[in-house]
Design brief:
The chain is α+β, with helices and mostly antiparallel strands and 514 residues long. The chain contains 13 helices and 18 strands. The strands form four sheets. Strands 1, 2, 3, 4, 5 and 6 form a six-stranded antiparallel beta sheet that branches. Helix 7 crosses helix 8. The chain is globular. About 2% of the residues have low confidence.
């Protein structure tokens, strides 16, 4: 009896082990996916806010008022700030603060406060765009985060800042959509304080108002940008997937207690025993009779399935039979062709066939990481390109003409750069080019002139396109800074070109040295 039951015992033990592993892998993948979705939401939220704040920061009325305050311009500035609520469809605070740290205007009507000791104001006075950690609003008493952009004068010195406050209750509502009975989500700031928690109504404990937060021990455990750990979360041994958002440096954590995973394992074991008792003899007979016939095609299909699951490319499965395995092979070959097409579509901009924004950012981060690890005796350059007068050409001759301008401009860029260089379109008339392994700065300057000439001499349908190019360049220093730092340097260089008449280029390294 015992000997006869041995196969069932082995199957059950294997099934339990395999099920536990599968459930753990599944939990990791689900956590990683949810972390990515939430991170993209946070990044999109910040980008939308920063785009509007940057636009306000270069408004001449605001700059003029900060340099020479007078009541005549105050009403115009109030209208500009209140209009941001219409743009965002919300009532989050927008505020203007002077270089003395005293708030000048708030759109929520709450008392004006002095922000001298606030880190986001100090960062603005250093000329940095910044997303704060958790703050307790001095005017409203609400838990908030602040997004700020410095306002600069003609000499590029900060003379104040524009800010928007973001109520953490909205972030709390968003992540609750992605939690479940088994999975919980936490977002914590740089100091381990709670920004949002899918299981809690109280966002932040009173003890977290000052100093390190309740989840600082998690921050101390994390070594990389993303990954998985086994940690004790709120008294439960849990599988933790984490992801550090590039824009805010906040950490998104998705965790599932191991007791939940083991409950599913026990359920699977019970089902396996029932099925095994019924089918044990039949399975042995079928396995013996069919093993020779099906081993080879199963191996091919399994290998192909593993490659697809891992995101790798696969060769065509060659099974020329009329049975089910032949049909499966045909289906896999169709999936292979479709997946390759979808992957190409996901990586490129539909109109210009250049890399899209996400792919360009990933390539840039990869190149910077390789640079920092290998320390080559070369330099890198990031070009941020904006086509001047494109809107006028688009409005005058129609969107089809504008699309042809973008396509022709992209085509000419490819001719001037190496296959290993990254050329991407961020949307609209904004392009980004990343080149590395350069011996000196002369090549960077030559490439910038090439880009200018392409734009200025662009012909579409036999008609001059009527555009020029403003180019901001960041040159990576030997210590290999992070992607956001390099991109911000290039973005600031672009603003410098636009502020000085457009149709030119300006470069600075990622440490801010022009």
């Amino acid at each position: 009896m015992f000997v006869g039951a041995m196969p069932l015992i082995i199957i059950t033990m294997f099934s339990a082990t395999n099920t536990a592993t599968e459930l753990e892998i599944k939990a990791k993948k689900v956590g990683e996916l949810r972390n990515t979705i939430i991170s993209n939401y946070i990044t999109g939220l910040c980008e939308k806010n920063f785009y509007v704040l940057k636009t306000l920061a270069i408004n001449k009325t605001i700059i003029s008022y900060l340099q020479d305050p007078n009541s005549e311009k105050l009403e115009d500035i109030k209208n500009l700030l209140h209009d941001t609520n219409t743009i965002f469809h919300d009532k989050n605070l927008s505020a203007l603060t002077g270089a003395d740290a005293q708030q000048i205007i708030r759109t929520d009507g709450a008392p004006l406060v002095n922000l001298k000791d606030r880190k986001h104001f100090q960062e603005a006075m250093r000329g940095n765009i910044f997303v704060s950690d958790v703050l307790l609003s001095r005017s409203t008493g609400e838990h908030i985060v602040v997004l700020e952009v410095p306002v600069r004068n003609k000499l590029n010195y900060p003379i104040g800042m524009i800010q928007r406050n973001y109520n953490l209750a909205t972030l709390q509502d968003f992540i609750k959509v992605y939690d479940s009975d088994e999975i919980s989500i936490i977002i914590i700031d740089r100091e381990g304080r709670t920004l949002a928690h899918s299981d809690l109504v109280q966002l932040i404990d009173e003890n977290e108002e000052k100093g390190k937060g309740h989840y600082q021990y998690i921050v101390d455990e994390l070594k990389d940008t993303s990954g998985t750990l086994r940690l004790n979360i709120d008294g439960k041994d849990s599988l933790v997937s984490y992801y550090r958002n590039w824009t805010t440096d906040w950490i998104i954590i998705t965790f599932q207690p191991y007791e939940v995973i083991m409950d599913q394992v026990y359920s699977k074991i019970f089902d396996t025993i029932l099925i095994g008792i019924i089918n044990l003899i039949v399975l042995f007979v079928i396995a013996y009779l069919m093993s020779i016939k099906i081993t080879r095609p199963i191996k091919k299909i399994t290998e192909a399935t593993g490659k697809i699951a891992s995101g790798n490319s696969i060769d065509k499965i060659d099974i020329d039979t009329d049975d089910e395995f032949g049909q499966i092979a045909t289906a896999f070959n169709k999936i292979r062709s479709s997946r390759d097409a979808y992957q190409m579509e996901a990586e490129t901009d539909t109109l210009t066939k250049l890399y899209n924004k996400n792919t360009t950012e990933n390539i840039g981060k990869m190149k910077l990481k390789n640079y920092a690890e290998n320390r080559p005796d070369t330099i890198m350059a990031f070009f941020v390109i904006d086509l001047d007068h494109f809107k006028e050409a688009n409005d005058m001759r129609g969107h089809q003409f504008g699309d042809k301008v973008l396509i022709e401009f992209a085509k000419n860029l490819r001719k001037k750069f190496r296959p290993t260089d990254c050329i991407g379109r961020f949307g609209g008339d904004e392009f980004v080019i990343i080149i590395d392994n350069l011996p000196d700065i002369d090549i960077i300057i030559r490439k910038a002139r090439d880009i200018k000439n392409i734009a200025a001499n662009l012909i579409v349908d036999g008609i001059p396109a009527g555009i020029t190019a403003s180019i901001g360049i960041a040159i990576v220093p030997p210590d290999g800074p992070e992607y956001e730092k390099v991109f911000e340097a290039a973005d600031q260089a672009l603003y410098h070109v636009k502020a000085n008449g457009r149709n030119g280029f300006y470069y600075k390294n990622a440490e801010g040295i022009g």
